Amino acid sequence: MDTVNQIICGDALRSLKKFPDNYFQCCITSPPYWGLRDYGIPYQIGAELEVDEYIENLTGIFLEVRRTLSNDGTLWLNIGDSYTSGNRKWRDKDKKNPARGMRYRPPTPEGLKPKDLIGIPWRLAFALQSDDWYLRSDIIWHKPNCQPESVKDRPTRAHEYLFLLSKSKKYYYDHESIKEPSKLKKGLRNRRTIWSINTEPNQYDHFAMFPETLIEPCIKAGSKPGDIILDPFFGSGTIGVVAMKLNRKYVGIELSSDYVDIACKRIKEVNANE
Questions:
Q1: pTM value?
Q2: DSSP letters spanning 192-233
Q3: Which residues contact residue 100 at a Cβ distance below 8 angstroms, ignoring those fewer than 6 apart?
Q4: Is the pLDDT confidence value at 202 over 70?
């Protein structure tokens, strides 16, 4: 199967089943968050009414990701949290963030209360750990320019999680390539687990675009030039853009044809500038 440097418009689980074992070196992805966005696509991940169903669906997809990863491959998983909806059935658009408008809202999960923080990232991380992934690191993506929130009974959220998981006990990880300046002495030190990286504005109709500076260390540490990087939730194609800039290959899978069009435009721009 020659799908290197291509985007597949389709369902992640069904598309991954077409790939052979040990095909990709590294997977970097951010699946749709649960109950936070309405992409207007039937059976979209993140629109499940039960949080357990959402975790189960993602675990099934990442089972195929693990099968298609090389034995020394890694998964870099960005995932954000959410609060219970208080059983509100919809959400109006926000003038500052029109994408917040939703036609549905999942009910409060059993065992939780209105206004509870659900703990989605750790629920998913523990589910993957139980499914034989090695949970190696919980990286905090600190957003210095985070979106303001109108809440007055808790701190404003300014971070998301980026989990590093591996297929095997021993795996490829180039720590030298992502060392950071030491604040205590001259020179470089091993990368820490708090990454302060601004979100980046974009000219495209996509409200959850990865900053390239968040992706670069994942690709550098998790692969070598010429390796194939997978993103089963390709979105606007940032993984492909950064992979090409760093002399890697990519395979992207994306359910939304609109986002596939955006990704194609961005990747064509990279090719035109090379």
A1: 0.90
A2: -SEEE------SSS-SSPPPHHHHHHHHHHH--TT-EEEESS
A3: 91, 92, 93, 94
A4: no
The CATH code of domain 6-273 reads: 3.40.50.150
Q: Indicate if the pLDDT at residue 91 is higher than 50.
A: no
Which positions ≥6 away from 196 have C-beta within 8 Å? 142, 144
In the chain, what are the domain boundaries? 6-273
Q: Are 63 and 130 in contact, with CB atoms under 8 Å apart?
A: no
Is the distance from CB of 89 to CB of 104 less than 8 angstroms? yes
Residue 74 CB coordination number (10 Å): 26
C-alpha neighbours within 13 Å on the C-beta side of residue 58: 28
pLDDT over 60 at 9, yes or no:
yes
